[in-house]
Specification:
- This protein has one domain: NAD(P)-binding Rossmann-like Domain (Rossmann fold, 3-Layer(aba) Sandwich).
- By secondary structure, it is α/β, with parallel strands linked by helices.
- Helix 1 packs across helix 7 and helix 3 (65-79) runs parallel beside helix 4 (102-128).
- It has eight helices and seven strands.
- The structure holds nicotinamide-adenine-dinucleotide (NAD).
- Nicotinamide-adenine-dinucleotide binds at residues 15-16, 18-22, 40-42, 45, 60-63, 88-92, 111, 139, 141, 186, 188-189, 191-193, 196, 199.
Length: 273
């Protein structure tokens, strides 16, 4: 698998870079000497973060293909190319699957899943044409590897990101591409995801998705929480090594294993080994 060994002087784009994990990734990449572009829908936070990090801020709605294409065009005009694209913007409001409305699906699929698809579509041609090679980091979640109640809509998007990333990695490797892929699957990280509804478009109909501060819950209290910059440093390592999976909470393997065991048991029950 390819990886970007030398980051200094190269160009990175981070969506959702105005807050939380995206901002942490942008800071870690900046510390490696990269030129960093952060893209976000929240203009005030974007300007403040760009100033703080020393990054270029580009207002972008990742749920719109034309907006992400405009971002890619601006990066090409300004820097000539891109080496690293982190498709990270996302929203994390929750509801029971049975309660979710069409507008809820439109929003969460649009930002979390289509946002990553748009990033791949707009930037892959740029990365593939870069003689120095390139890398794509897609932010999924532990929720892309196992499910929890109240987070079904979110998990649908994150399982989709894992599938997209695994397939893209397979296809690029088969054709000998110099572009690598990492899917980032974080556990709990201190961010503003608990107020994701701040970015739900006003034009969307009311739905059931609600914000939830898991940090204040009994489950949250049992978890190990990371700061965004620690996740950024994990991303830098994964990009250098060309790792397909970037795992932040190895202690959560039990939950993923338990899901795999249930699937294996179903194969066994159907007459498999
Ligand atoms: N915080 C966690 O514990 C955690 C765990 C696993 C995965 N994640 C994932 O990490 C990513 C970042 O989330 P975070 O926790 O840092 O939350 P956050 O709210 O702090 O940051 C998300 C950023 O995405 C931006 N954004 C939202 N909608 C957008 C849109 N349509 N276009 C462009 N930007 C948009 C927001 O303005 C914000 O700056 C998400 O994909 C999330 O699902 C977070």
């Amino acid at each position: 698998m390819s990886g970007l060994k030398d980051l200094a002087g190269k160009t990175a784009v981070v969506t959702g870079g105005a807050s939380g994990i995206g901002k942490g990734i942008a800071q870690a990449l900046k510390a490696e000497g990269m030129q960093v572009v952060i893209a976000d829908i929240e203009r005030g936070a974007l300007e403040a973060a760009a100033e703080e990090i020393g990054a270029v801020g580009v207002a972008t709605d990742v749920s719109s293909m034309s907006s992400v294409q405009a971002l890619a065009d601006e990066v090409r005009l300004r820097f000539g190319t891109a080496h690293l694209v982190c498709n990270n913007a996302g929203v994390g409001s929750g509801a029971r699957v049975a309660d979710m409305k069409a507008a809820d699906w439109d929003w969460i699929l649009g930002v979390n899943l289509r946002g990553v698809i748009h990033g791949v579509q707009a930037f892959l041609p740029l990365l593939s044409a870069n003689p120095e090679g390139g890398h794509i980091v897609n932010t999924a979640s532990m929720s892309g590897l196992r499910v929890r109640s109240q987070a079904g809509g979110y998990a649908v998007t994150k399982f989709g990101i894992v599938a997209l990333s695994e397939t893209l990695a397979l296809e690029l490797a088969a054709e000998g591409s110099k572009v690598g892929v990492t899917v980032l699957c974080p556990g709990m990280v201190h961010t503003n995801i608990k107020s994701s509804l701040r970015n739900r478009p006003d034009g969307l109909a009311q739905g059931a998705l609600a914000d939830y501060d898991i940090e204040q819950s009994e489950l949250g209290a049992r978890m190990r929480w990371l700061d965004p910059l620690e996740v950024g440093e994990i991303v830098v390592r994964a990009v250098r090594r060309g790792d397909l999976y970037a795992i932040t909470h190895p202690e959560q393997l039990d939950e993923v294993e338990a899901r795999h065991r249930r699937i294996e048991a179903a194969f066994k029950a159907a007459g498999g080994r």
